[in-house]
Amino acid sequence: MNTDTHSHTTRCWWNAERAAWVCRSDETAAEQPVAEGAEAPLVDVRDMIVVHTAMLREFRLLPEAVARVEPGAVKRAAVIDRHLGLLCDMLHHHHEGEDALLWPRMRERVPAQATVLIDEVEGQHVRLDAALADVAAARAAWRRDAASTHRDELAGRLRTLYDLLKEHLELEERTVLPLAAGVLTEAEWAAIGEAGAAGLPKSTLPLVFGMFAYEGDPAVLRDMLKAAPTVPRVVIPRIAPRVYARRALQVHGTRQP
User: Fold this and answer.
1) Fold for domain 46-220+227-252?
2) What would the mean pLDDT of 151-170 be, rounded to a whole number?
3) What percent of the chain has pLDDT over 90?
């Protein structure tokens, strides 16, 4: 009787049709490619959830950060606007990567009946782009004079953006990411994250990683940096939480927003 035990790893995946685990050891996986017609292990898409969690938290907090600025406090408005600008850029580049690298591939590979989901999330992107444009216009007016009318307009548009984003990310995580995990390769999935990061200045990466690390799964965070050069892979996890805590204090008045 074989009494050996096996602990599932990321190389194991649950086959719902067979109602059974499919497991390949690290030692044999490279030597035993998946047979033609067989199902490959699911791609780990948890890094996307880490990114979503961070963006949703920040956009939820920003309307109140704007609303707290006293009328005419232009310097204070500039502090909040700098953080808001980074978040808007993050969201824009995140969606650009999905539009270019995720939806087209999924359309080619998912069952025909599932393409309605791709239609829905793409439509949500269009509405989010319009909401981002509204926020950009309100930001420009508020930056000029920090007037209460412009402040309140911006806070309202940010609340609308947050509501749309929350609906979008919930749908994406519930229905789209499980599909993507089954039809994309690891390299294709990694390219989506790399495209989003490439759109941001390198100087912001410690802050952005600090946003991710605030609520992110440590194991997923380690994997997100595994392809980075040695120095940033070692240094960024050490400094990122402090960089984010400093920004949170500036924007929200607390290191733990």
Assistant:
1) Four Helix Bundle (Hemerythrin (Met), subunit A) (1.20.120)
2) 98
3) 81
| pTM (two decimals) | 0.83
Please give the DSSP secondary-structure letter assigned to residue 71: T
CB 80 within 8 A of CB 69: yes
Q: Categorize the per-residue pLDDT at 133 as very low, low, confident or very high, splitting at 50, 70 and 90.
A: very high
**Three state DSSP letters for 139-186:** HHHHHHHCCHHHHHHHHHHHHHHHHHHHHHHHHHHHHHHHHHHHHCCH
The token pair at 176 is: 């789209």
For the chain, the domains span: 46-220+227-252
| 3-class DSSP assignment, residue 13 | strand
| Side-chain-facing half-sphere of 201: CA atoms under 13 Å | 6
Partners of 15 in beta bridges: 20
What is the average pLDDT value for the chain, to the nearest integer? 88
